[in-house]
Amino acid sequence: MKKLLRLGCLLVLLLVCAGCALGVVTRAPGGVPKPSVPTLGLVKFTFPVHRQAGDREDQYALWLENPRTGTHFKTLAVTSYVATQGFKKDPGILPVWEQHAGIVFMIGPREKDVNVMLVPTPPSGTRTYLWYCDNDAGTEAMPAGTYRYYLEGNSRKKAHVLYAGSITIGTKPDRSQALAETVTGVQPQVVGTVQAAFIPCGSTGSI
C-alpha cells in the first residue's frame, strides 16, 4: 500500500511538473479566481449566445481597453478556435479583436495570458463572464476610472457584430449596456447585446 501511495504521489508530481513546463494554465471563465492583489471589485458581463452554425464557424471575443490610450489590456473570453488556429488559417473571423489584441504577436508569456481565457463555443443561452478589475496577468489592480469593453461575434464570416460600451470602476456601483457599432449579415447575430455591472469591493450586491 505504501508503495502504491508513493507511486501515486510521484505520478501527480510528474503531471504537475509537465504542466508547468508546457505553460498550462487553468482559469475558469465566468468563475475566474480572484487575483492575488486587492482590487476595487468586479464587473459582471452578461450576453445571449444564438448559435448559427458549427463550433469553428461561430466565434466571439469579449475584451477590455483603456480609453485614454485606446489599447487592449485584457481578454476576458475568446472562443478557442479563433485564438489558437483561426487567426492563422482563416484570418478575419474576429477582425477587430485580432487587430486590437495583437494576436499575431502573442508568443511566449503574452500567448499564455490569452490561453487562460480560451472558451469552447457554447450552446445557445445566456453567458456570464467576470472581470475582477485586474490586469491581463491578474498581478495588478487597475485604477479607478472608466474602461471600454467590446464584444465581437461572427458566424461563417457572413454575420458579424461588434458591441462597445463603457463601465466605471471605483467606490460606487455602475451599470451600462453596450451599443452595436457594426452589424452585417443575417439576424440574429451569434451574440446579443452585452450588459455590464460593476460591484464595488465590500458591496452587498449580488453577482
Q: How many β strands by DSSP? A: 10
Helicity range? 10-25%
| End-to-end gap | 46 Å
- The secondary-structure class comes to alpha+beta
Give the low-confidence spans. 1-31, 107-115
> For the CA atoms, what is the radius of gyration?
19 Å
Summarize this structure briefly:
With 207 residues, the chain is α+β, with helices and mostly antiparallel strands.
Outline the structure in words.
The protein is 22% helix and 36% strand. By secondary structure, it is α+β, with helices and mostly antiparallel strands. The strands form two sheets. A six-stranded mixed β-sheet has the order 4-3-2-6-7-9. Strands 5-1-10-8 form a four-stranded antiparallel β-sheet, with no helix packed on it. A hairpin with a 3-residue loop joins strand 6 and strand 7. It is globular, with a radius of gyration of 19 Å. It starts with a helix and ends in a 7-residue tail after the last strand. Residues 1-31 and 107-115 have low confidence and may be disordered.
Keywords, separated by commas or semicolons:
four-stranded antiparallel sheet; globular; 207 residues
Which helices and strands occur, and which strands form pairs?
Blueprint: H1 2-22, E1 41-49, E2 58-66, E3 71-79, H2 80-89, H3 95-101, H4 109-115, E4 118-119, E5 125-131, E6 145-155, E7 159-169, E8 174-177, E9 179-184, E10 195-200
Parallel strand pairs: 3-4
Antiparallel strand pairs: 1-5, 1-10, 2-3, 2-6, 6-7, 7-9, 8-10
